[in-house]
From TrEMBL:
It comes from Pandion haliaetus (Osprey). It is found in: Cell membrane. Residues 10-116, 117-225, 226-330, 331-435, 436-545, 560-663 form the Cadherin domain. The gene is Pcdhb14. Transmembrane segments: none annotated. GO terms for cellular component: plasma membrane. GO terms for molecular function: calcium ion binding. This is PCDBE protein.
Length: 693
C-alpha cells in the first residue's frame, strides 16, 4: 500500500551501462550507494523496480542494493540499429514515497560479422569507360553499432580497380569501385577479384564476395538516369503500397538492348523491407507502413539495367515527415487498488507515466480527470505523474471508484487516451451499531417454560467485514428492576431473547434492563437500548374462599328467623382471586340446595337472601352449596357450603346452638373461635328480638 504523501521526487536520472547479452545475475551497479542508503534502509523502505516497458530485464536485491541482470538483453533486438540503446526504469521507495528515474545503456559487443547477401557479383563495364569512373557495389550488412559495425572495404587486386569506403546519411558504410586503368576488351575481356568487408571489433570480423567484371564493346550504350539523386518526402504512418517516387533512365540503343529494367540494390535490409520498385515503370512504392519514430530517413540505391546488362545507378533519399499519428500512452508504474477511507488528502493512489512516440509539439502531453471525483493529478518529473486524493473519503457513501485518467497531446487534431483505475476503499471502524428501536417491549405469559423466545433484537452497522459484525449482550439492570438478573438471556450472534426460568405474574409483573450491541472493529464501538419485559397474567389461580372458610363446618350454618321478611340477608359468600383482569371477575351461583326456592345468591355480590316467606312444610335445617366461578381461560371455580337453620324464637336459637354436633368441638382453634363468635351473634340477635317483642 502506497503511503500517505509524496515526500520528494528527484529530477536527476541515474545512468548505468552494461554489455548486451550479459549473463543473468551480472552486476550492473549498486543502487543503495547511489541513493545514499544502506541495504537495511533499502529493504525497510521496500525498494522495487518499475520497468519502463512491458518486460522486466533488471532486478534489484533489496538487502544489498545491487542492480543485476534478470534477463539477457540483445541490443539489436531491442533497439535495432539505433545509436543509443537504453533500458529505462524507476526505483520506487516507500516510507516516505520517492521515485528515482534511471536508465541502463546497452553497450554493443561484436556479436555479428558483416554479411554480403550475394557472394558473387557480376559487373558489365564498357571498354570506353574512363579512369576514375565509379561503380556502386552491393553493401555488406552488419547489425552491430559503433566500432563493431562495418568499417571499411578492401580489394584483393588493384590492377584495374581500387575501392573507396563511403558513408551514408545514416552512418552506414558502402563501397564504391573506382576504375584505375582503362579497360581493353581485346587484351582482357574479364577481370575477376574479391572484395572484403571488415568491421572494427576485436577481433575483427570480415566477409568476402567475388566480383566478376565483364568488359563490353565500345559500341554499346549505357542507361542514363535523368537525375543522380532523387529527394522525396512521405508522411509518417503512410500505408502500404503508397507511391513514393518514379525514377527514370534512358538508353540510346534500340530494340531489346534499349529496354531498361529497374531494381533496388541491396544496400540495407531495412530499405529492402520498406520499399519496392516496378521494374518496368521505375515507380517506387512502400512495402510496409513507415514510422517516423523508428526511421526518419531511407537511402535507396536504384539500378537501371538495359538488355545487354549495362547498368547505371542513382540514389533516392526518402525523408519521413512526422505527423501526429501516435496516441499518448498511460503506463501505470505503481497502483494501490485498495485505500483506507481514513486516508487524508494528498494520499498517493497511483504513479503513472504518459508517453507519446511523436516528436516536437506532437509529443507534448497533459493529463486530466474528467468529471467530479475526489482525486487530482500531481506532476512529478518529466512525464511522471501521481494520482492523489483531494479530499476525505467515506466508504459508506461510495465504496469504490472507477478513476478515469485522460491524457492528450498538443497536436491538432488532438489525440487522447483514457485509462480507468479501479479503487476500492477499505473500511475503518468509524460507525457504531444502531438499534432499530431505542426501547424494545416484549410480552411473556407467566409460567412459560425456560427457553421460550420473547423476540429478537436488531442492530445494524454501516461498516463492512468484521467492523459490521454485531454481537449482543445484556447490560446492567435499570433502577427499580428486580434484583435478580437471571430472568432472560440474549443470544450474542442472533440477538434472540429467551426466558431462563418460569416467571410468576404475582411475583414479577414487569422489569427492564439494558442491552448492548457491539461491533468487531478496533476500537470497539457499541450502542445501547432498553429491553422492557412485561409478564402477562394467566388464569393459574382458582378463587380462594374468605367466608365461609373451607375449614368451617357446614352444620354450624346461619340462623334465620322464620318470620324474617323477603330479601332478608342470610349470609354473604366472600371469595378473592390473586389473578388480574378478567381472571378476577367472579360470579356466584347456587350449585346445590335442599330447597332452592327459599334462598338465592347474588350473581356478583355473593349475598344469600331470603326469596319467600317460610311455610309450615319447610324443614328447619337446610344446606346450600354456592359455586364461585371466575371469567378467565381456562375457567376456574370454588365452592362454599352454608348450613342454614330456621328458628321461631331466641330460645330456640339457643337450643339449636346447644344441639350443635360434638364433632364441632374437635375443630381446629381457628374454627372454634369463629363458632364462638357466631354464638355471640345469635345470642345478641335473640336478645334484641325478645326486647322488641
Amino acid at each position: 500500500i502506497l503511503l500517505l504523501c509524496v515526500s520528494g521526487m528527484r529530477a536527476e536520472t541515474a545512468r548505468y551501462s552494461v554489455p548486451e547479452k550479459a549473463e543473468r545475475g551480472s552486476f550492473v551497479a549498486n543502487i543503495a550507494k547511489d541513493l545514499g542508503l544502506t541495504g537495511a534502509e533499502l529493504s525497510a523502505r521496500q525498494a522495487r523496480l518499475v520497468p519502463g516497458g512491458e518486460k522486466q530485464y533488471l532486478q534489484l536485491n533489496q538487502h544489498t542494493g545491487d542492480l543485476v541482470v534478470l534477463e539477457r538483453m540483445d541490443r539489436e533486438e531491442l533497439c535495432r540499429q539505433s545509436e543509443l540503446c537504453l533500458v529505462r526504469f524507476e526505483v520506487l521507495l516507500e516510507s516516505p514515497l520517492q521515485s528515482f528515474q534511471a536508465e541502463v545503456s546497452l553497450t554493443d559487443i561484436n556479436d555479428h560479422g558483416p554479411v554480403f547477401l550475394n557472394k558473387e557479383v557480376v559487373l558489365k563495364i564498357l571498354e570506353s569507360a574512363m579512369p576514375e569512373a565509379r561503380f556502386l557495389l552491393e553493401s555488406a550488412q552488419d547489425p552491430d553499432e559503433g566500432n563493431n559495425s562495418l568499417q571499411h572495404y578492401g580489394i584483393s587486386s588493384k590492377d584495374y580497380f581500387f575501392i573507396y569506403t563511403r558513408r551514408r546519411i545514416d552512418s552506414r558504410r558502402y563501397a564504391e569501385l573506382v576504375l584505375d586503368l582503362a579497360l581493353d576488351r581485346k587484351q582482357q575481356a574479364e577481370v575477376v577479384f574479391s572484395v572484403t568487408a571488415v568491421d572494427g571489433g576485436s577481433p575483427p570480423r570480415s566477409v568476402t564476395a567475388s566480383i566478376h567484371v565483364v568488359v563490353l564493346d565500345i559500341n554499346d550504350n549505357v542507361p542514363v538516369f535523368t537525375r543522380s539523386l532523387y529527394k522525396v518526402h512521405v508522411l509518417d504512418n503512410s500505408a502500404e503500397d503508397t507511391p513514393v517516387v518514379v525514377v527514370s533512365a534512358s538508353d540510346l540503343d534500340s530494340g531489346t538492348n534499349g529496354e531498361i529494367a529497374y531494381s533496388i540494390v541491396q544496400n540495407s535490409e531495412e530499405s529492402r523491407q520498406t520499399c519496392k520498385i516496378n521494374p518496368e515503370t521505375g515507380q517506387i512504392r512502400l512495402k510496409k507502413p513507415v514510422d517516423y519514430e523508428e526511421t526518419k530517413t531511407y537511402e535507396i540505391d536504384i539500378q537501371a539495367t538495359d538488355g545487354r546488362g549495362l547498368s547505371a545507378h542513382c540514389k533516392v533519399e526518402v525523408q519521413v515527415e512526422d505527423v501526429n499519428n501516435n496516441t499518448p500512452e498511460v503506463i501505470i508504474t505503481s497502483l494501490s487498488s485498495t485505500l483506507s477511507e481514513a486516508a487524508p488528502p494528498n494520499t498517493v493512489v497511483a504513479l503513472f507515466n504518459v508517453q507519446d512516440r511523436d516528436l516536437g509539439d506532437n509529443s507534448m502531453t497533459r493529463c486530466e480527470l474528467p468529471g467530479e471525483q475526489p482525486f487530482s493529478i500531481t506532476p512529478l518529473v518529466a512525464d511522471a505523474y501521481a494520482l492523489v486524493t483531494s479530499e476525505m473519503l467515506d466508504r459508506e457513501e461510495v465504496a469504490e471508484y472507477n478513476v478515469t485518467v485522460r491524457a492528450r497531446d498538443g497536436a491538432s487534431p488532438v489525440l487522447l487516451v483514457s485509462k480507468t483505475l479501479l479503487l476500492r476503499l477499505l473500511d475503518v471502524n468509524e460507525n457504531a451499531p444502531t438499534f432499530a428501536q431505542a426501547i424494545y417491549t416484549m410480552v411473556l405469559s407467566e409460567n412459560k417454560p425456560a427457553g421460550t423466545s420473547l423476540g429478537r433484537l436488531s442492530a445494524t452497522d454501516t461498516d463492512v467485514g468484521k467492523n459490521a459484525r454485531v454481537s449482543y449482550a445484556m447490560g446492567p439492570l435499570l433502577p427499580g428492576a428486580p434484583s435478580t438478573a437471571s430472568f432472560v438471556s440474549v443470544d450474542a450472534e442472533s440477538g434472540s431473547v429467551r426466558v431462563l426460568r418460569q416467571l410468576d405474574y404475582e411475583e414479577v409483573r414487569a422489569f427492564a434492563l439494558e442491552v448492548r450491541a457491539a461491533d468487531g472493529g478496533l476500537p470497539l464501538l457499541s450502542a445501547r437500548a432498553v429491553l422492557h419485559v412485561v409478564v402477562r397474567d394467566e388464569n393459574d389461580n382458582a378463587p380462594a374462599m374468605q367466608h365461609p372458610t373451607p375449614e368451617s363446618s357446614a352444620a354450624a350454618g346461619e340462623l334465620v328467623p322464620r318470620w324474617a321478611r323477603v330479601g332478608y340477608l342470610v349470609a354473604k359468600v366472600v371469595a378473592v382471586d390473586v389473578d388480574t383482569g378478567q381472571n378476577v371477575w367472579l360470579s356466584y351461583e347456587m350449585a346445590k340446595a335442599t330447597e332452592p326456592a327459599l334462598f338465592r345468591v347474588g350473581l356478583h355480590s355473593g349475598e344469600v337472601r331470603k326469596t319467600r316467606a317460610v311455610a309450615e312444610r319447610d324443614v328447619p335445617r337446610r344446606r346450600l352449596v354456592v359455586l364461585v366461578r371466575e371469567d378467565g381461560q381456562p375457567p376456574r371455580s370454588a365452592t362454599a357450603t352454608l348450613g342454614i337453620t330456621l328458628v321461631d324464637s331466641s330460645s330456640e336459637a339457643f337450643t339449636q346452638l346447644s344441639d350443635a354436633p360434638a364433632g364441632r368441638q374437635q375443630q381446629q382453634p381457628q374454627a372454634a373461635d369463629e363458632d364462638l363468635l357466631t354464638t355471640y351473634l345469635i345470642a345478641t340477635l335473640g336478645f334484641v328480638s325478645s326486647l322488641f317483642l
